[in-house]
Amino acid sequence: MRDITLATSGDRQLAANSHAAHMTQRILGYLAMVAVVLIIGIPVAWVLSGALKTNREIFTTTPRLLPANPTLDNFGKAWRAAPFDRFYINSFITTLLGAGAEVIMALTTAYALVFVRFPKRDWVFILLLLALMVPEEVVLVPNYLTIAGWRMVNTYPGIILPGASIAFGTFLLRQYFRTIPLDLVDAAKVDGAGHVSTLLSVVLPVAAPAVATTALLSITAKWNEYLWPLLITTTEDMRTLPVGISRLLDLEGNTEWGVVMAATLFVIVPVMLVFLYAQRFVVDGIAAGAVKG
Amino acid sequence: MSDVIRIVRRDWREWLIFIAFVGPNLLLFGIFTYYPLAQNGVLAFTDYNLITRSGRFTGLRNFETVFGSTQFSKILANTFVFTTVSVALLLGLGLMIALLLNQKLRGRNAARSILFSPTILAGAAIAIVWIYIFDPRFGFIYAILRPFGIVAPKWLTDPNWAMPAIIIVYVWKNLGYATVIFIAGLQAIPRELYEAARVDGAGAFDRFWHVTLPGLSPVMFFLVVTTILSSFQAFDIINIMTKGGPVNATNTLIFHLYELFFVQSSAGRAAVVALLLFVLMMVVTLLQVRYLERRVSYA
Q1: Do A259 and A78 meet the contact criterion of CB atoms below 8 Å apart?
Q2: Which ipTM was obtained for this model?
Q3: B172 lies in some domain
Q4: Which of A113-117, B85-89, B98-102 has the highest mean pLDDT?
Q5: Which of A58, A197, A272, B188 could form a disulfide with A193 if both were Cys (CB 3.0 to 4.6 A apart)?
């Protein structure tokens, strides 16, 4: 910081300039916020307005953002247009079991990699690193053949199993576990606690934020998954929500937009609610993962 | 002597615990990642058919068929355009918004979360919403252009507009991710660097060029790699909005893979495309590994 009394007129000019620049920057910042809200908000508003419009309004009048005669009929129609009760049940089961398996395996694997003695522990780490480099799309064909060979097409295990193992979440947790003081874990061991109880009563509470991030990322990924469930289910009663709603469009030509928008809300709203509640874990967790590398 | 036995027994128990903790994860990776990766390599050299469930070794014929097909150069070009334009837009816009939001503004965190929210929504649902927005008769874009006398393009059925439409949706969905990571990167740059630059008389542009950009280089590289990789995997939006059309205008490698396998039932040719995707993604990933080793950041 410069001493004000020593400031020359040139410096004062500079200070004034930088104040103006500062104000401009703030104004631009608020404009950017408005832009962001519009860019994301308008499509969302369009969905809501579409879901509340009558067919007549959508197909006959000039499109407007505010519905002329708001109606809730589309939600009932959407629910009857496809077996959404089945879609919900299927999505809930595959998400809970799939994400549950991922979180448990991420926890145990990361714990073992950090706190359990084993020769060549690093080799296991490298094996996981390799798995991280193989995206599911690359092994899609053989995995389909495996699941089909096990006669698991159109079953929950068929949807869940190929995606149940977890590398990314394991790294996220391993990174976090390494910051936990070893004394904490050793103290538990001196008290006679085994690894399972150390994991549950010492490590898990300390690492709760990282576990929450991992869990939320797993849950949203499973809930939104599209390609694999599309391939491995062929009957309507085994479809998950994302695959199920996309079928509403396939009914050739005149899509009933009001009904379809109501149906997309069925898919979006549960995740939105979870996100509203837990967005800090997700956003901060993702940011932290990138910066720490 | 008994001490030795106790240590050996304790080691033994540790190993068992280790195997029990790590085993299921590794077993599943073995069955659904390592083994199929090898199996995919074998399938690429056979004419395995999904319907007859049998195949013979056919040498390089699948490679010739896939790479030699008339549409393949178009598919490669589409993949290249989709990836480069999407990544450029995501990084450019993401950095711009991050720079503007990276100051003490009221409601900044709310704006950040709003921008991030499409990232966690189902691509399938977002694709459907945007079909309605793009609809040339009832859609939002039609509605806002009409008062100005501008005729909205028939986005998804026009070969010239389908790819831009797909890119718009993809960027819309992922912009929040890039922004959030840029903001985190900006906040990780030590404030003293800016103050030092200011004392040295560096202007706003100089500070951006000599402090911000070098400070962001690790995050920038991370984003380039992750956005390239995920753009290779963009399937839901394309399958729902255009099914690769019109006339292959939005057919990319990942869509072609799906098409070969589930429309043409040719596991062998699909395996060739999967192999190509794997090689491309491996190259991008290895670039990242090399970068992390060298630590190019000057900050």
Answers
A1: yes
A2: 0.88
A3: yes
A4: B85-89
A5: A197
